[in-house]
Amino acid sequence: MVKICCIGAGYVGGPTMAVIAVKCPAIEVVVVDISKPRIDAWNSDTLPIYEPGLDEVVKACRGKNLFFSTDVEKHVAEADIIFVSVNTPTKTRGLGAGKAADLTYWESAARMIADVSKSDKIVVEKSTVPVKTAEAIEKILTHNSKGINYQILSNPEFLAEGTAIDDLFKPDRVLIGGRETPEGRKAVQALKEVYANWVPEENIITTNLWSAELSKLAANAFLAQRISSVNAMSALCEATGANVSEVSYAIGKDSRIGPKFLNASVGFGGSCFQKDILNLVIKINDYQKSRFVNRVVSSMFNTVSGKKVAVLGFAFKKDTGDTRETPAIDVCKGLLGDKAQVSIYDPQVTEDQIQRDLAMNKFDWDHPMHLQPTSPSSVKQVSVVWDAYEATKGAHAVCILTEWNEFKELDYQKIFNNMQKPAFVFDGRNVVNADKLREIGFIVYSIGKPLDAWLKDMPAIA
Ligand SMILES: NC(=O)C1=CN([C@@H]2O[C@H](COP(=O)(O)OP(=O)(O)OC[C@H]3O[C@@H](n4cnc5c(N)ncnc54)[C@H](O)[C@@H]3O)[C@@H](O)[C@H]2O)C=CC1
Ligand SMILES: O=C(O)[C@H]1O[C@H](OP(=O)(O)OP(=O)(O)OC[C@H]2O[C@@H](n3ccc(=O)[nH]c3=O)[C@H](O)[C@@H]2O)[C@H](O)[C@@H](O)[C@@H]1O
């Protein structure tokens, strides 16, 4: 019989383990906690937390294959899989106070696991933790390992309070991250088999450890931003006579936005949602563009002065010639600021438009034509050409700024042969097959993907 032990009998540990127990009669589940009153309550008729449906689930399996205990060490020692679902509050003092997560409880749980274990263990991060916590936990466990093999998995929880049991019975997805080694994959599979007792296979996502840890934080950030956006609209509604419920309904009908989580409120609460300013979205967008330019410059020995940089794509998205607020403007201006020679190709944007865009002040495009400069002085460091091969000839680097389909089909071997070496590709839209380009010899940067060894060694990005 597989034995599961969960450290932490709180809002997550209690309901999650009760659902595992009820759905997996062949698994023994023990929930342990250092708080005796909490454990006593879990063993009583008055459970320590209120959740619709929780009483029934606990009553169905408590004393059969679900147990609550304060004998933490005994049950950790006996378990095959240990979930750690202790609290991870915000630090209130010291370095990072008010911002960083306080991992004191996590660390003491990990040290206790290392102390009492006598057999191999799968240790599952259930708590919400900063990215890379698994690495720290791994270090604590393996430095004290006594020959025991530990596999760390990240299995963040997405339940919301008030709907915990429904969310656990029918999760949108279960996410399991693990090491990309044979032992890591085996551990991921073992945990997947637990959830597969009631969750459809296609809803169980497996990833690497860091993607799983980050996805949890990202999901909460997206949800919090959504509420903040609606709440910002509520102030606009009050000022204009619009009705926020009507606005939410109307925008929620857009299938890309969807109808959920669009209720204006006095502000969101709960322990997890904190970063809530609408401004953040704009700041992040500007940051994303300057980060791209910094990548280009820092990768190319910290200067692009006098170097030819090919820009493929100028429109704000594919299949249009529209350039209003295209990120290409800011990226090109950044490269020109560092004195690059920029050679631009876009299948639908004219040379006149590109020169106009690069000469114009930000937001001027949104004023009537007669207020805009009639004959913009062309920017000398810029040439606009008729195809991608011409743009990249003799270049040190290629920057892909629009996701035109034709950029996927280019003959990159031919492009490589005609470029300066080392030849760089900075893919701002994730359109190229980075592995194939690396085989040809390119140094490739793809937005949000693991970095080339070359790029990793270059100076940090501002
Ligand atoms: N509350 C929620 O809706 C959700 C919470 N989370 C995350 O899950 C984690 C747990 O959250 P909650 O269950 O709400 O916290 P909680 O505070 O209700 O429960 C944590 C429990 O861990 C126990 N504990 C702490 N250190 C221990 C140790 N060394 N040994 C044994 N027990 C120990 C505490 O006594 C407490 O009962 C947090 O990281 C939280 O961010 C994730 C998704 C949803
Ligand atoms: O990581 C966590 O702890 C959890 O945080 C939230 O769950 P929770 O905080 O329990 O509850 P929510 O339903 O998300 O509500 C959070 C706050 O936002 C408010 N809210 C929510 C939705 C909405 O449309 N408007 C709004 O103001 C709620 O009233 C509440 O104050 C997430 O929804 C869960 O997916 C996540 O697992």
How would you characterize the overall build of this protein?
It holds the Pfam family UDPG_MGDP_dh_N. It catalyses: UDP-alpha-D-glucose + 2 NAD(+) + H2O = UDP-alpha-D-glucuronate + 2 NADH + 3 H(+). This is UDP-glucose 6-dehydrogenase. Belongs to the UDP-glucose/GDP-mannose dehydrogenase family. Helix 1 (13-23) packs across helix 3 (54-61), helix 5 runs parallel beside helix 6 (133-143) and helix 11 crosses helix 12 (327-337). The protein has a six-stranded parallel beta sheet, sandwiched between helices. It has a six-stranded parallel beta sheet with strand order 11-10-9-12-13-14, sandwiched between helices. It has three domains: 3-209, NAD(P)-binding Rossmann-like Domain (Rossmann fold, 3-Layer(aba) Sandwich); 219-279, N-(1-d-carboxylethyl)-l-norvaline Dehydrogenase, domain 2 (Orthogonal Bundle); 281-456, NAD(P)-binding Rossmann-like Domain (Rossmann fold, 3-Layer(aba) Sandwich). The protein is 39% helix and 14% strand. Residues 275-280 have low confidence and may be disordered. The longest helix is centred in the middle third of the chain and has 32 residues, at 209-240. The protein is of the alpha/beta class.
